[in-house]
Design brief:
- The protein is mainly alpha-helical.
- It contains 13 helices and no strands.
- Helix 4 crosses helix 7.
- The model has no long low-confidence stretch (mean pLDDT 93).
Length: 363
């Protein structure tokens, strides 16, 4: 059992490292294609990172609450953790490293990665406490099919026959709802990748993680994980014919495909650790044990480095990047990547120190 949890810790740590890597390039204008998100439809390695984490949250929910009852104390803990995650996300969006220390309340972004994790965790954990795995599976597919039908076929009011679309447009239901509810509180003027409606299929990503956690518990034959992974991938890519793979609006095909890749990677790690008894990935375990803390710090520090001015020409980020990483013998893409790798190295060292000092900050 410890090895299986270790497998999840390794995948969690790897995912956090990948999140920090893609979030902290030296120059956003010079990033290798695999380290950027797809512009709209499509899938890059970067696009699978966040759904991997929600998938892992689901696995963690299974092991944390498999022997828990739906009591007041259990719900209190779930709600407290959810509120902490949402609060941390809002703090990042609101904080300024200079007076008045708070972003404008009229325009600050409300959604975010931590906010979505908190909401998805709250709903998924509550569902898990109350329903069987069969009901959870049926509910997940109901969400995915319903989301597709709503976004693709539900008519817009007062639009003179304009059909809904999956494209980046005003008649995309996900964008339309975010714009009309969130208004100026979005990442982009016309959409937010962690918006309101797209949080629904993200719940399915987490629930599928719960179900994989159940499969992992007592698993003797790793081929079952690979079979599930293949089923996810085939169904997702076939579904994408009608509902394109898209991270920004978290399409149903995107959920299936990313859960497939997550299950496949987890299966490989499980095979190497539990079947072949190989010892590797310890550093990922260190990161995984303080995953939220390290992610929160990386985003907060990065924001401060962009906002703190060194002089009229440079902020702290650009000053360090151009002073240390820009060299004539390196391409700008490589310089940008090396900066990101150095940031990752810093947080890996921090994770190691926290582990050695037996410091595990639970959110």
């Amino acid at each position: 059992m410890k090895q299986r949890v270790a497998s999840v810790d390794i995948l969690r740590g790897f995912t956090i490292i990948a999140m920090i890597l893609v979030n902290t390039p030296g120059d956003w204008g010079y990033v290798y294609a695999p380290l950027s998100h797809a512009k709209w439809h499509g899938l890059t390695p970067t696009d699978i990172i966040f759904p991997f984490f929600l998938f892992i949250v689901g696995i963690s929910i299974y092991f944390a609450y498999k022997n828990k009852k739906a009591t007041y104390i259990t719900y209190k803990k779930i709600i407290n953790r959810s509120l902490k995650l949402i609060g941390l996300g809002l703090f990042i969006n609101l904080f300024l490293p200079y007076f008045p220390f708070v972003e404008s309340l009229e325009t600050f972004r409300i959604p975010g990665v931590l906010q979505r994790i908190g909401i998805v965790f709250l709903i998924s954990a509550s569902l898990y406490l109350n329903y069987s795995w069969k009901t959870l599976l049926a509910l997940s597919f109901f969400i995915l099919i319903g989301y597709w039908l709503f976004l693709g076929f539900f008519p817009f009011p007062n639009t003179n026959g304009i059909s809904p679309t999956f494209s980046r447009a005003p008649n995309n239901w996900a964008n339309y709802i975010d714009l009309n509810i969130l208004g100026k509180h979005m990442w982009q003027p016309d959409y937010d990748p962690e918006g309101i409606l797209s949080t629904l299929p993200a719940i399915s990503s987490c629930i599928f993680g719960i179900l994989i956690g159940k499969l992992l518990d007592g698993l003797k034959h790793v081929y079952k994980l690979f079979m599930v992974a293949i089923a996810f991938l085939i169904s997702g890519y076939i579904f994408s014919i009608w509902f394109p793979i898209n991270k920004t609006i978290w399409t149903s095909s995107f959920v299936l495909v990313t859960c497939g890749w997550a299950t496949l990677v987890l299966g490989i790690i499980f095979y190497l650790i539990d079947v072949k008894k190989l010892q590797f990935g310890t550093i990922f375990k260190y990161v995984g044990m303080n995953a939220i803390t390290l992610y929160f710090m990386s985003i907060l520090i990065s924001k401060c480095m962009y906002l703190i001015k060194v002089n009229e020409s440079y902020n702290l980020h650009s000053y360090l990047y151009k002073s240390i990483f820009i060299n004539s013998f390196l391409s700008l893409e490589m310089s940008s990547l090396l900066y990101a790798v150095s940031v990752v190295f810093f947080y890996v060292i921090l994770a190691y120190i926290l582990f050695k000092k037996n410091i595990f900050i639970k959110v």
